[in-house]
Amino acid sequence: MHPVAESLHRRFPEIVTGSREALGDLTVYLKENGALEVFRVLHDDPEFRYDYIVDVTSVDYPMDPERFEVVYIFYSLPRRHRILVKIRVPETHPVVDSIVSIWKGAEFMEREVYDMMGIQFRGHPDLRRILMPDDYDEGYPLRKDFPLVGKGWRDDFSFVPKYHEGLPPLPKGSS
Amino acid sequence: MESLEKEKVGGAAAEAPTVRREITLSTLRQAVLNGLDSSIKTEQFLLNMGPQHPSTHGVLRVLLDLDGERIKKAVPDLGYLHRGTEKIAEYRTYNQIIPLTDRLDYVSAMANNYAFVRAVEKLLQLKVPARAEYIRTIVAEMQRIVNHLFWLGTQALDIGAMSVFFYTFREREVLLDLFEKICGARLTTNYYRVGGVEGDLTRDVIDALYSFVETFEGHIKEYNTLLETNRIWLARTKHIAVITGEDAVNFGLSGPTLRGSGVDYDLRKYEPYAAYDQVEWSVPVGHNGDIYDRYYIRVEEMRQSASIIRQCLDKLPEGPFMTDDHKVSFPPKGRVMHNMETLIHHFLLVVEGFKTPPGDTYCGTETPKGELGFYIVSDGSGKPYRMKIRAPSFVSMGAFDHMARGYMIADIVTIFGTYDIVMGECDR
């Protein structure tokens, strides 16, 4: 096991559920409950020092009981090491703790995750949609059950052929 | 205090309910001595800037909370250029996504192509031939020069120094013409491929590049004579939008925006890829963390890029420019036309794409604007299950409020510019 994962597991045995090393990256899996404390240690503790926030994102697995996976990517500038942290949340209660109090850069990233996947961040200072319009109420575009076409303003026009109906017949005489 | 203020009624006294208050010199003096709020009535002022504004480098709206001309709070409103690239990518094969990445940051398309193919190669654990690595390095550094020239010209134009723009665009044109020779397009290049590049560097391109880097140092001096000691430029850039190194790291800033604050984080040094560990170059770092330092770093980076290009051209090895692993690369066209199996192979690569092993990976690349990362989740098919783009412009906008607070409204223009922001990449 990677020393970082081992040390984390020793300190938080009931929150850290596992770890994986693949393609040169370390991934640590956490439980939602209590994860904020692990993040704080990852940032502050001189043993880890993951001071640079790379990204916060999410993946949708509609078939799984815990549908959404929130993925955090951090980098440690002094130690030159990257870590991926993953938390699973169910569709019925898609809420995780916000990490804006630790990494200020997470504010926009978490807003984007909320906008695109509908995951709520507890304690976020300004959780609004960021890329979609503020009053958009047709769901969350990056969820797997949101169709690629058929939900835009273009599809409101009657003369635009509908995606599922196929193309209209060609006019007579054209080849 | 109130008695000092003479209330003066405007021209049409009877009808007009508006009352103009005259501020006398003594009021002002009192105000300066006692503090502003006691004598002159002030109020916070909310100003909407954009979505269309010549200085926003794209379609961006900012809500400014002002106290006089000072910025109290700046709230960026993003998303006007949101095209759903991440959603579209889930329905495209990997080769079909490369042209989508051109459209992210449309002033440095080559760098985006590179960031994407590197992520896919990491997922495939694919080795790229040495010549391809060198060509990639050369073209990526050409793109860095193109991007920084574009930035320098427009930043100076925003501040009011018109002439710099003409000089920087003169050199940018030379490099864009070379792009056209290399891949057939100037802006939407679609040149990098998973496993190599689309075409080889020809002799005349190499010669033209040699003569370009030969003369480029002199051109940088030209820009610097226009700006380096220009009093207006100095007044508009020195000690504006200062951010400490600690804050910049906490916000996740990258590229020249981060290095201006004294943090030497550059992925080309921290996690060397391509030919960057085989040539001599250094990472310029500022120490004030203001707009001037970031300008200086970008100019210095252009020098380093020119040096990297020259060294790579000297060392350019012979050999193939595309991997011979035909699981990902297309078979030679001559064989496709004569051999049944090769034709089927070609057809399947186009229709289904190559398969990636299940798993996920994050791969960051140092583009001219900062760390452009691709997080790709693969389910084993020819299309990504999920693709997240970590856009440096988007992360920079997160720090906009922090960096703009306390500065004057006229500085907004330079603060936009200092991120080298492109809204296509910010909104994706």
UniProtKB/TrEMBL annotation, chain A:
Principal place of residence: membrane
Protein name: NADH-quinone oxidoreductase subunit C
Annotated HAMAP family: NDH1_NuoC
Gene: nuoC
Domain NADH:ubiquinone oxidoreductase 30kDa subunit, chain residue ranges per copy: 29-150
Keyword Membrane carried by entry: yes
InterPro entries per record: NADH_DH_suC, NADH_quin_OxRdtase_su_C/D-like, NADH_UbQ_OxRdtase_30kDa_su, NADH_UbQ_OxRdtase_CS
PANTHER family xref list: NADH DEHYDROGENASE [UBIQUINONE] IRON-SULFUR PROTEIN 3, MITOCHONDRIAL, NADH DEHYDROGENASE UBIQUINONE IRON-SULFUR PROTEIN 3
Subunit structure, interactors included: NDH-1 is composed of 14 different subunits. Subunits NuoB, C, D, E, F, and G constitute the peripheral sector of the complex.
Free-text function comment from the UniProt entry: NDH-1 shuttles electrons from NADH, via FMN and iron-sulfur (Fe-S) centers, to quinones in the respiratory chain. The immediate electron acceptor for the enzyme in this species is believed to be ubiquinone. Couples the redox reaction to proton translocation (for every two electrons transferred, four hydrogen ions are translocated across the cytoplasmic membrane), and thus conserves the redox energy in a proton gradient.
Species name: Leptospirillum ferrodiazotrophum
